[in-house]
Each structure stands twice: as C-alpha cells, then as structure tokens.
Amino acid sequence: MTTSAHLDASPAAVMPGDEIRIPLELRNSGNIVEAYGFEVVGPAADWTVVEPPTLSLYPDTAGTVHLVVRPPRDSTIPPGELAYAVRVRPQEQPEHTTVPEGVLDIGAYADFGAELNPRLSQGRTGARFQLAFDNRGNHPLTISLSAKDQSDALRFTLPSTATVVGPGQAAFVRVPVRARRRMWRGMPTPHPFQVTAAPAEDGVAPAVLDGTLLHRPILSATALRALLAVVALLAALAVIWFTLLRPAVRSAAKEAVKGPVQAAESKAAEAKDAADRAAAGGGGAGGSGKPSTGPSAGASPGTGPAPQAQANLFSTRLTAEAGTGASKSATYTVPDGKVLRLTDLVLENAQGDAGTVTFSVGGKPLLAPALENFREQDFHWASALLAGPKQEITITLSCRTIGHPPATPTPTTCSSSALLSGTL
What we know:
- There is one protein chain.
- 14% of the residues lie in helices and 46% in strands.
- By secondary structure, the chain is mainly β.
- It folds into four domains: 3-106, Immunoglobulin-like, CATH 2.60.40.10; 112-215, Immunoglobulins (Immunoglobulin-like), CATH 2.60.40.10; 220-253; 313-423, Jelly Rolls (Sandwich).
- The strands form six sheets. It has a five-stranded mixed beta sheet with strand order 2-9-8-4-6, with no helix packed on it. It has a five-stranded mixed beta sheet with strand order 11-18-17-13-15, with no helix packed on it. The protein has a four-stranded antiparallel beta sheet with strand order 1-3-7-5, with no helix packed on it.
- A hairpin with a 7-residue loop joins strand 17 (189-199) and strand 18 (207-215).
- The radius of gyration is 46 Å and the shape is elongated.
- The N and C termini lie far apart (101 Å).
C-alpha cells in the first residue's frame, strides 16, 4: 500500500454546540506525487468537515489535515460514544483507498423549560391548572413538583411520583387547586401561589411559576337577587292565602253545611214537641217555626302594593382592533341626562392574541388583564359601577402578538371585545 492514514484511537470529547479539531496524519510511501480527497462517513458526517478538503504529497512525505467536528445543540444527538470514519481516496491510485476510524465522546447537556397555563383561573370551589414541561436537552430529565401560597388558603393536588420527560419531548401535568374554605357571598378574592418544578439533575435550575386562583362566592349577585325574588314571591303568596283565600274557603264551607244543620235542628225540635205531647196525654198540634238565618259575612279582597317601575335594561358591545405594536380604543359615551349602572362585563379574546386590554370609566383605568391569560373572562359587581352623563367607557387594546385560531386564515390584527350590561 502506498498510502497510510492514522487517527488518534482515544475518544475525542466534544459538547453539542462546541467545536473540536482532530488531526488526521497521512503518508505517501509511493513513488509519484499523490493528491488525496476525504469523505467523512457515519452519523457524524452531517456536522464534520475536513480542512483542507484536499492534500497533495510528494513521494515518501507526510502531511496532516484536521477534522473539524461541530455537533449541533440538538436533542436528537444522544450523549455517549459515537464511532466515525474518514475515507481517504488517492486520486492517482484510487485502489489504495484507506478508511481510518475514530470515536467521539458526545457530552450531555440540559435545556429545560416549564409553563403554567392558565396563569389566572377562577371558580367557586377551585380551578384546574396545567403544567407544560419542555426538555430541549439530549438526555431524560426527572422533575419533581411542589406548590405553596403565602396565606395557606389553597390545597394543591400534585402527582405522587416524579415526571420523566425524554429528550426533545414535552409532558403535561394537571394541577387541581382548591380553596380550603367555601365563600358563600361577597366579592371575588384573588389567591396568588407558586409552583416549583425541580429537575433531579445537579446544575439545572428549578422553574418557579406564578399563578392566581380567583375565588368566587357560591352565591353570586345574580343568584342572590333571584333567591330574594323567590322569597318575596313566597311571602306574597302566604299573605294572599291568609288574608284572602283562607277566609273565603272557611266562609264557603260554613255556607255549604248551614242548610243541612238547620234542617236537622228543625226535625229535632219537632220530635221533642211530639214526645212532650205524648207524655202529657195529648196536646195541640204544635207549630213548627223556621229558624232564621243570619246574614253571612263576606270577605272583600285587599289591595296589594303597586308594582315598581322597571328600569331600562342596557347592553352594548365594544370591539377594538390593532396591529402588532399598536394600540386602539373603542368608546361608549353615556347620553346626556342619563346615568349608566354597569353590573356585568365580559371580555373576549377569540383569536388568542397576546398583549393587554385596558377597561376605563371616565378616563380612570379599572382593569388591565393580559390577553394571553384568557379567551373569555367575565366580571359581575353587586355594587354597580356608575357612569354619569357624557362620561366615556373605553376599552384600549395594546397588541403585542397576533394570535392564530385553528382552521381559519391568519388574521392581520389583534382583536378584543367587551360586552357591557346594566341599566340606563
């Protein structure tokens, strides 16, 4: 053989995303000038090059080229030893091709992410949250969960075993959160909490995720008003029964039995007179009298309270659209001489946009939730929000990222709506 090639037999250590240079020594033991070409074979061929790509050697001389190895930071490249080879092909005498072999020692790296979805949820007893884990490293991660809230008002249901996430994979874990005590009435109360996702591997920082449970009362303002209306109706029915229907029923019953009772009393009186005459040995025929009937008492119905005047119901919808990085507003102005009592507000984010929507009354911002935290969110106030004559109710949409609803064309602007309800 006129060509010899040599690679170091010991494994060459390299981390994904880094670069190493491995020398390849060549010797031309022939008697002609030879030019050599190189071809890397094996899994490392996609991210390994030879510098220089060709080499010419005079007879009985040696030279060196370098393999530049750049494994990408990709989860598809597992850690451990990886064999490779280089095909050294002489151009003048290709039959003397040689293939030296070597070994790479690919290092392990961790790249871990976690997200809590949604960050804000609401419920009368609790709500369900979901943790999403993303392992962008090249080896499996074992993740343990813990959760806490500062006021110790919440109870968390966490998995009893750790979650294992493979390289390049995602995992989802449901985390039900419940309030320790029931709230029957009052204003919704926010309870912030934190969930910690800690990988078992040393050197990987845990992810601390913030969330909030908005604890709503079991009896909302609407349900309480309905309950009071039912109680008032039952009370009115009770008053009607005891003041009108019950006396009328008693009077009708008395009138129904009055005739038979009088007839029985008349027959009893006649029988007594006959018995008295028979005992006395005779007697004149007694006259029989008819009992007189007294006037019957009639019940006159009472007069109930006059119905109250119904308030004018109010409902309107505001929609704001804005491009990426822009802000747009939609406004409703209360008519002159009118007062708007706002009791219900529903915010909509149908496209799944990212940004903020600010709700203002009379130029004063009251709410500014992040769009990415909801698709539909409702607010109800037992004490209505008041807007006076000519005051403006405004929603301002600040678009950061336009959403992409599934199975629909990609929208060109962010879009958010608000449904306002109350009385005017």
